[in-house]
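Lab manual, section 2.4: Encoding a predicted structure.

Procedure: take the sequence of the chain (55 residues), apply the prediction step described in section 2.3, and record the output as structure tokens. A sample record is shown.
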Amino acid sequence: MSKNTKIGNNEYNLLKAIGREADFLHDTIDEYKRDAQNENRNDLVELWEKIKKDK
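Recorded output:
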């Protein structure tokens, strides 16, 4: 038997924010890093790697 469990607005907001952060870390940063690599901008590649590591 399964119950429908509702979450509150604050819990939803937290989950949404965590999801956005995960998307940024795993999709957007990798895309920006590839762009920098394509333009031989090793300084920016290192910066994006540092940002990802720090997060």
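Check your result against the sample. Helices lie at 9-38, 42-54.
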